[in-house]
Specification:
CATH superfamily of one domain: YVTN repeat-like/Quinoprotein amine dehydrogenase
Number of strands: 66
CATH topology of one domain: Methylamine Dehydrogenase, Chain H
Strand content: over 45%
Shape: globular
Number of helices: 2
CATH class of one domain: Mainly Beta
Radius of gyration: 30 Å
Oligomer: single chain
Length: about 775
């Protein structure tokens, strides 16, 4: 059986090496929640969760777009199309702009994004001819979509929220009122802009024929273009969208759709819906139907009938990736928590396996007594080690969810479990049942962290029996969401911030049901080996490396516990790794000192992948002395420099990176090492190496830090290196940097004990 599992392991590794080249990136963007679309010929381009996909209405092909291929950024907030320019304009949340044509040629206009100027955020857009007019916090920008240039910038000192254009005039809705300027005038001169209407809360403007429409306080009005203060409400219910398409005007809300070809008359269809936009193509009204995806409708007898059902590419349901866990080759993703509670992230639990996504269903049939529940903020997702089809998700203020095959099974709360509410007497008690972090131990016990309660640590045994572990020092801790089971038997918990903040450690002595023999301690200050004292405001993630050391991050930097078994000693000190400057001064600097370190993960070579709050990702050598990589949005496909979590797949080396804007991954050159060299376990990819291949040649099945040599068929040394964990890569060049000739090359490896073996051979074809 052991031999079979070993062979299976290396077959999986070999398959993954073929699927992704070392050093390559992937992005896992969400294409659910369709919000806006444009029709270009036979193709519908749709923005969903800030990402772009297209649907060919003739051959039904669905294509996705991302920043690895065609596009130059992520997080699209608006889309428009100019028939005259035959280009799509994409507006990103950071004010970057892409112009895209039907052949996937893209032109990036980044000047606005790159400027350090107040008010550069683009609030709205209006396409007129080949021009795109963009309302901003300082006025108006005119983009020539045909030429691909910024044509004019109007710095008017007006905070603009909407714009509309016709042949004669431009109307600008601002926080100071509705302004108008003749296009024949010098629009750079603010004195040529006159206040047309006093209202300051217009959010959208739209011409429909000769009529100027406006949305104000979510109601729809006609604005008299001749008499400034005259407006007429034509729809007195709140609307969520307004769109003109193919000579028809559509607007609506969650309970009605209205349409007309000639105001003031219109038709109302009363029905529940989630429309957020509509565009017409080929007699079909293509609706951005939020989480129903892109859908095709036709109007028959004043009824909207679905003719093309939900189109939503397989992808994460949302661009949320707060907590990542690998279970074999399955990546578990918990959407996240907003720690300010000002914004609630929708419950999001999902996993990716073989590039296919399973999005767990939400609890839809809510019992009557829980009608006031507000489900939100999934903080963790774990897989039952005894049953891969069974998962548990923690919700920061809603307790524990159980799933089977991605289907909701059970909701654990204060009414049916030992979980407790922070506000037990409140009628909204079900919104305060804390469960903030999950982890299975080696015995199959499910541990959970319950913030802001007397008892923070609870355990559910495989039998279903519950245990409670009370520790006074973390009583009422504000937010605990990370657990680490150390190889020594110690348990570490982060108390992130505010009440009882710090790094907490306890020892159950192997009997967590009996707390009389427990030891515990909490470090709210960090004193390093040089007696420097730090008082972090945030205690983030941690990990155990292959040498048993614990690395943990705070808002003040990265710290190490060299020997965790000494944490209970009176004069215990943390370590800050010192990196030599190597400038002849003999001085050194603390590693990543002052950088907010949010998460750390260890790869098969004992290197540390360090995520930061504002500076992207660092790959640090095993001893911390070398920065091997530093990835940011400026020099890599990283989606955001705000990193939430990192998880390394020890089988394949894929490094999953959860960011503020979604999930991406990097294929590293390190996997788990084997205990001893065995020719039968060694795989090479690609092999043979053909003339058109220029990437790294991967050799797996190595012991830790194996010395590897490449020899020619005559026995001459061609190249030598050291493995990263169980993998070594060769660039196909000799030691002079020249590409080797065609032929057969032998791989010779020495393990740590000095044992030598000819492991395999590589065929080079030129």
């Amino acid at each position: 059986m052991k031999k079979f599992l070993t062979v299976l392991f290396f077959l999986v590794v070999g398959t993954c090496l073929q699927a992704a080249q070392i050093g390559s990136w992937k992005v896992y963007l969400s294409y659910h929640n369709a919000t806006k679309s444009v029709a270009v010929g036979k193709t519908i381009y749709t923005v969903a969760n800030g990402d772009l996909f297209s649907y060919d209405t003739e051959d039904t092909e669905v294509r996705t777009y991302d920043n690895l291929g065609v596009l130059n950024d992520v997080d699209i907030v608006n889309i428009g199309y100019s028939q005259e320019a035959k280009k799509i304009i994409l507006i990103y949340s950071n004010s970057n702009i892409d112009l895209l044509d039907a052949d996937d040629n893209v032109q990036n206009l980044s000047a606005l994004k790159d400027k350090s100027v107040m008010g550069k955020e683009i609030s709205n857009m209006y396409i007129y001819g080949s021009m795109a007019y963009l309302s901003t916090g300082f006025g108006l920008i005119e983009v020539d979509m045909k030429e691909g240039i910024f044509r004019n910038t109007y710095r008017l000192g007006l905070d603009a929220k909407g714009v509309a254009v016709n042949d004669e005039k431009i109307y600008l809705a601002t926080t100071s009122g509705l302004y108008v300027c003749s296009r024949a005038e010098n629009m750079q001169d603010k004195t040529n802009w006159t206040k047309h209407q006093e209202s300051t809360d217009w959010s959208q403007l739209q011409f429909f024929g000769d009529q100027l429409l406006g949305v104000r306080a979510n109601n729809l009005f006609v604005i008299d273009t001749q008499v400034g203060n005259t407006i007429e409400k034509i729809y007195d219910e709140s609307i969520s969208f307004l769109r003109e398409t193919n000579g028809m005007l559509f607007w609506g809300n969650a309970s009605a759709i209205c349409y007309t070809s000639n105001l003031p008359g219109y038709t109302t269809i009363k029905e529940d819906n989630t429309w957020s936009d509509v565009t017409c193509q080929g007699g079909v009204y293509w609706v951005s139907d939020q989480y129903k995806g892109l859908q095709g409708y036709k109007i028959n007898d004043n009824q909207m009938q679905v003719t093309v059902p939900s189109i939503a590419p397989n992808s994460p349901v949302r661009n949320l990736s707060y907590r990542l866990n690998w279970a074999g080759n399955r990546l578990l993703v918990a959407g996240g928590i907003n720690t300010t509670d000002a914004i609630y992230n929708k419950p999001t639990a999902m996993y990716m396996e073989d590039d296919e996504w399973t999005n767990f269903e939400e609890m839809t049939e809510i019992p009557e007594k829980y009608k006031k529940i507000k489900l939100a903020n999934t903080t963790d997702l774990v897989q039952d080690p005894a049953d891969p089809s069974r998962h548990f998700a923690s919700l920061h203020r809603n307790g524990l969810f159980e799933y089977k095959d991605g289907k909701f099974v059970k909701f654990y709360n204060k009414d049916n479990s030992p979980l407790r509410s922070i506000l037990p007497a409140s009628q909204y008690y079900m919104n305060y049942v804390s469960c903030s972090g999950l982890k299975y131990d080696a015995d199959g016990n499910l541990w959970m962290l319950c913030s802001q309660l007397d008892t923070v640590v609870r355990v559910m045994r495989p039998s279903g029996k519950w245990e409670a572990l009370y520790y006074k020092s973390i009583r009422q801790a504000s937010l605990c969401d990370n657990i680490l089971f150390h190889s020594s038997g110690l348990v570490f918990v982060n108390c992130r911030h505010y009440v009882a903040k710090g790094l907490f450690c306890f020892d159950t002595n192997g009997t967590f049901a009996n707390q009389k023999d427990d030891r515990d301690t909490i470090y709210q200050e960090v004193i390093n080996q040089d007696e420097t004292v730090y008082s972090p405001d945030e205690f983030y993630g941690f990990c155990e490396d292959l040498d048993g050391r614990v690395w943990f991050g705070t808002n003040l930097g990265l710290f190490v516990i060299d020997d965790p078994t000494t944490v209970f000693e009176k004069n215990f000190r943390f370590t800050q790794v010192k990196v030599n400057r190597n400038d002849g001064s003999g001085l050194a600097d603390y590693l990543l000192s002052g950088l907010p370190v949010t998460c750390i993960a260890v790869d098969g070579a004992n290197r540390k992948w360090v995520g930061t709050l504002t500076n992207g990702v660092f790959l640090i050598s095993a001893d911390g002395q070398e920065t091997i990589h530093h990835f940011t949005t400026a020099d890599s496909p990283l989606l955001s420099d705000a990193i939430q979590d990192i998880a390394v797949n020890p089988i394949t080396g894929e490094v999953a990176i959860g960011t503020e804007k979604g999930l991406c991954s990097y294929m590293s050159d390190a996997i788990g090492a084997v205990e001893e060299l065995d020719k039968g376990n060694v795989l090479v990819y690609p092999n043979p190496v053909r003339s058109d291949y220029t990437g790294p040649i991967a050799i797996t099945g190595m012991t830790m830090d194996a010395e590897v040599k490449i020899l020619s068929s005559s026995g001459q040394l061609v190249w030598s290196g050291v493995s990263s964990g169980g993998l070594v890569t060769w660039n196909g060049c000799n030691m002079r940097g020249n590409r080797v000739a065609s032929g057969i090359y032998h791989v010779v490896a020495n393990d740590n004990a000095g044992n030598k073996a000819i492991v395999t051979r590589i065929v080079i074809i030129k």
